[in-house]
Structure formats: C-alpha cells, structure tokens
Write a structure and sequence with these properties.
Helices cover about 45% and strands about 15% of the residues. It is of the alpha/beta class. It contains three helices and three strands. The chain has helices at about 1-20, 40-55, 90-100; strands at about 30-35, 60-65, 80. The protein has a domain at about 30-100: Rossmann fold (3-Layer(aba) Sandwich), CATH 3.40.50. The N and C termini lie far apart (about 55 Å). Strands 1-2-3 form a three-stranded parallel beta sheet, covered by helices on one side.
Length: about 110
C-alpha cells in the first residue's frame, strides 16, 4: 500500500514538472553588462562576448578611457567609457562599489 502511494506522488510530480516546462516561454537572449579587465584577460573575454553576441545577447562593456586593448567601438557591444585622467584607481573603485551593491564577491 505504501509503495503504491509513492508511485502516485512521483507520477503527479513528473506531470506537474512537464506541464510547467512546456508552458515556459523561450528565452531569446538578454542584456549583459561586462566589467572586463584590461590586458591579456580581454582576449578571453572577447571570445566569450563573440559567442554571447552570436546567441542574441545585447552586450554593454564598461571600459576605462586609458584602455589599450578594449576598443570603444565594436559591432559586438556598446561601450560606456569612464574617464581616467588623474583619477588613479577610480575605475577599480567603481567596480568594487558595484559588486558590493549586487552582493557579489570580488576575486
């Protein structure tokens, strides 16, 4: 008797799960905000951005005005440039504050 009840519960759970999945709208991509690190890290980040762009995501990159590697204009993303003249580590301080706001840990 106990096993029969368990089979009915499992069957109802599977039916409910399949029903919910079938009524979920498909995802066509989203908006992604990127805080890249300048230098060799940008090479790997750019590969990821190319794939995300190919999958339909809208990308926005925040870059420093003193960046050597991250171009301001790109067909892959729109950019937000932060002026860095005479401000030292203002860009990294900005990133740390943004990560605190979204409760992310800084690595």
């Amino acid at each position: 008797m106990g096993k029969m009840w368990w089979h009915h519960v499992c069957g109802a759970f599977v039916f409910l799960t399949v029903s919910l999945i079938s009524f979920t709208p498909p995802c066509d991509g989203g908006n992604i905000l990127v805080f890249p690190v300048d230098g060799s890290h940008w090479i790997n980040t750019k590969i990821l951005l190319e794939e995300l762009h190919a999958r339909g995501h809208n990308l926005t990159v925040i870059r420093a005005s003193t960046s050597w590697y991250i171009p301001e204009k790109s067909p892959l993303y729109t950019s937000i440039t932060i002026q860095m003249e005479g401000q030292g580590n203002a860009f990294y301080i900005f990133l740390q504050e943004q990560l605190k706001v979204c409760n992310c840990e800084c690595v």
